[in-house]
Structure formats: C-alpha cells, structure tokens
C-alpha cells in the first residue's frame, strides 16, 4: 500500500478515490500487459471490405457501444443468419461493407439504435471456392480460406504445377464487377523483383488453368530420343545435351528442325547450335556417312 493510499484511508476518503490512487501508483502497463489486455481472437488479415460472404463463413458482428448486440455466428447454407432485433437477414453474396450497411440501416430504420456503427470481422472463410485444373498435382475445387487469398496460395493448395509437364504461364478466369475476367500470369515473374503485384487475388468461382509446358521432340542419332520440356530460351545445343548428346554415328551436319509456320505448314530448317527452339519443334539428327 502506498503512502498516498494510507493517507486517504485514514482521512475516510471514499473507495473510488482509493482505487484511483492505487492505479496512479501502479504506473503505466508494460508493453506485454497492454498487448495481453487488448488481444482477442485474431480475425483474418487483408482487404476484407470487398470480400463477398458465403455459406459457412464465420463472422463476428459488433455494434459500437451496444455490447448486447455482439454476435459471433456462421452464415447458413441459404446465406442467412439471425441477428438480434432484426431477425433473419440475408448476407450471402454481399460484401463485408454491404453487410455492415444492411445491418446498420435495419437498426436505424427500426429505431433500435440512433446512429449504429456496425463492424463485421471475417473469422473463417468457408463459403467460397475456386477451382484448379490442368497440369497440377491435385486438381479440384478448393475453399478460399482467407479473404486475401492470392493465386500462389491457390496453386499451393493444389500441390503446385507438375514439374515436367506444367507450364510457367497460367490462365485465371472468373468474374469481376459482373464482367467476364481473364488474365495470363507468368508464375516465375511473380517472384522477380517487383513482381508481387502480379499475384492476383482469388475470388469465388475463379478457375485457374495450368496448361502443359511447351515441348520439343528429338529423334534420330541421339542417346535419349523422345519429347522433352522446352525451357525458356533453350537452344538447339541445350536440347541435344538434354537428350544425352549424339550417338557415335550422329553428326551435327545432319541436324534438321521441322517447324510449323504461321499457316501450319511444316518447314525443314538447319539452325545453328545457339539458335533458340520453339514449342512443337521436331529435331532430327541424321546418321553420319563416314
């Protein structure tokens, strides 16, 4: 007990004064204590204002200075929930901002709260889904588990692209602002300096398509003939090296590349070793005559 508290008690001061004196003597809370005092169940981080609520989403609704209206619940399969004073309301398909306005207008128009300030926190996202198709390890439909889920998050849920057959450029389709949406995303470019902005946000109903990687085909006098993945900028020499190199009977002078032109006709060309190959090229290594 501090000296100030003992003096107030001897003088017959009221209890409120004793409490104030004790708080003043205790000093400010430590940073750790303040953090413990203000911490609660952490909501999902990110730009949730434009997130559309769906069936199964767990949300917390608070009305400023009205603790009796605090509600933590989930959106039903029909997109509805029961809110105090308002009864059953439909929030499915509304953004967080629209849902907040709907509840605030209902409380105000019903003369329940004069100037309601409504806040909705998305605690768990379960109602929205996106699909991943094509050359991935686990194609299928996946829930959008966070309000700020990006393309790389969705791809990771599907196990990533298949190493040997998955292309680097992926196509995301869906709907934005009521209009059809389509964007091609270069996956390696996302991880380049300044490329994080290309990691687009995923919304309900989006479909991510991972096409097959470009291929070239090698046959003739090579150690391992057959199709192979065409890496970016791969030259003829690199492709031959990936095929194990030429056999003892193969010759560099007899190499031909069959390539389709813009009209779909096949042309036979004799490229240099440092020339880059294209998707669908067929490399033929002839047998040496000597």
UniProtKB/TrEMBL annotation:
Domain Soluble ligand binding: start-end pairs: 216-269
Keywords: Cell outer membrane, Ion transport, Lipoprotein, Membrane, Palmitate, Polysaccharide transport, Porin, Signal, Sugar transport, Transmembrane, Transmembrane beta strand, Transport
InterPro entries attached to this UniProt entry: Poly_export (IPR049712), Poly_export_N (IPR003715), Polysacc_export_EpsE (IPR017478), SLBB_dom (IPR054765), Soluble_ligand-bd (IPR019554)
Pfam family, one: SLBB_2
Cellular location(s): Cell outer membrane
All copies of domain SLBB, residue ranges: 129-210
Topology term for the membrane: Multi-pass membrane protein
Domain of life assignment: Bacteria
Domain Polysaccharide export protein N-terminal: 47-122
Primary residence: membrane
Signal sequence region: 1-33
Family: Belongs to the BexD/CtrA/VexA family.
Name of this chain's protein: Polysaccharide export protein EpsE
Organism: Roseateles agri
């Amino acid at each position: 007990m501090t000296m100030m508290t003992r003096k107030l008690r001897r003088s017959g001061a009221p209890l409120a004064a004793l409490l104030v004196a004790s708080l003043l003597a205790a000093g400010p809370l430590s940073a750790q204590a303040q953090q413990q005092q203000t911490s609660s169940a952490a909501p999902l981080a990110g730009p949730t204002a434009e997130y559309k609520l769906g069936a199964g989403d767990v949300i917390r609704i608070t009305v400023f200075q009205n603790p009796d209206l605090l509600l933590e619940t989930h959106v039903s399969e029909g997109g509805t929930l029961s809110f105090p004073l308002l009864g059953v309301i439909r929030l499915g398909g509304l953004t967080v901002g629209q849902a907040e306005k709907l509840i605030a207008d209902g409380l105000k128009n019903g003369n329940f709260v004069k100037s309601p300030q409504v806040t909705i926190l998305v605690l768990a996202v379960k109602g929205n889904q996106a699909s991943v198709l094509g050359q991935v390890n686990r194609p299928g439909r996946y829930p959008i588990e966070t309000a700020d889920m990006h393309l790389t998050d969705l791809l990771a849920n599907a196990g990533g692209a298949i190493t040997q057959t998955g292309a680097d450029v992926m196509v995301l389709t869906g709907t934005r602002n009521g209009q059809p949406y389509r964007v091609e995303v270069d996956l390696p470019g996302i991880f380049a300096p300044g490329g994080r902005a290309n990691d687009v946000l995923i919304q309900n109903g989006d479909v991510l398509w991972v096409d097959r990687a470009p291929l070239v085909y090698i046959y003739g006098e090579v150690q391992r003939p057959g199709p192979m993945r065409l890496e970016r900028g791969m030259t003829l020499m690199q492709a031959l090296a990936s095929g194990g190199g030429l056999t003892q009977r193969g010759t560099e002078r007899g190499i031909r590349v069959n390539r389709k032109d813009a009209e779909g006709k096949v042309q036979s060309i004799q490229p240099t070793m440092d020339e880059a190959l294209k998707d669908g090229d067929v490399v033929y290594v002839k047998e040496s005559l000597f």
